[in-house]
Design brief:
Number of helices: 9
Order of helices and strands: EEEHEEHEHHHEHEHEEHH
Bound molecules: adenosine-5'-triphosphate, magnesium ion
Radius of gyration: 18 Å
Strand content: 25-35%
CATH topology of the largest domain: Rossmann fold
CATH architecture of the largest domain: 3-Layer(aba) Sandwich
Helix content: 25-40%
Low-confidence stretches: none
CATH superfamily of the largest domain: P-loop containing nucleotide triphosphate hydrolases
CATH class of the largest domain: Alpha Beta
Mean pLDDT: 94
Strand order of the largest sheet: 6-7-8-3-9-10
Amino acid sequence: MIQHLLHISHVSKHFGGNVAVSDVSFSVEEKQIFGLIGPNGAGKTTLFNCITGFFPATSGDVIFDNKKINTLRPDQVCKLGMARTWQRVKPLGSLTVLENVMVGAFSVTSSTREAEAIAQEQLKVVGLSDYTTKSAGSLPIGLKKKLELARVLATRPKMLLLDEICGGLNHTETDTILDIIRSIRKKGATIIFIEHDMKAVTSICDQIVVLNSGEKLAEGTPAEITNNPDVIAAYLGGGHHA
Ligand SMILES: Nc1ncnc2c1ncn2[C@@H]1O[C@H](COP(=O)(O)OP(=O)(O)OP(=O)(O)O)[C@@H](O)[C@H]1O
Ligand SMILES: [Mg+2]
């Protein structure tokens, strides 16, 4: 039987008169890499904010690991095993790389020694072991994105929501991040991946949902989505930008 880890059911989010997300439903299977794509302003980040408790959906349900999490706070959602990265990375610039990742680890342990061990382990996963004592603010964008990934991995999540984790990166840096994401999935995590780079999306995602003006426009495999005339007209046909 297919195990669904996340159900989004008829979720809408209104900001005053602006409908940012409108009646969106989909389900994510365990260990899937699930793509969420669509034009700028389509509602992708807003949906992440509703799922992870940064603000509640106006209507609809979010079911994670068989629990309704609609009204939980971000820290409570994180404790259940869901972690997200931010579209605009915001490390604690005055702290070191190691300390930034320890902040994530403190959500699963109160022991400083254990938090440091978890942080070192995750910095190794993303290839930042040589940067532990550097100040996080001094890192170039490519390494900041890796740091962001290590920070969420240190919370030991079952599910990761990655908001443009490859945004602003060159092809080589993107490929490295995609390899790290594949290795994370191999260890058993489930991933939702927001990204504008279609080459990255189609190479890594099992299933894709397309949002357009807050509504779900299409859902399918990468091949189905790239050949869908509605998706081509609304998004892939050109004119969009990261
Ligand atoms: N906190 C907020 N208050 C008011 N309106 C908001 C808020 N957050 C998002 N919106 C609006 O919701 C809509 C969807 O924005 P959102 O950031 O979710 O799009 P997106 O798909 O992530 O776009 P991008 O690809 O540019 O990141 C936009 O019209 C935006 O202005
Ligand atoms: Mg966004």
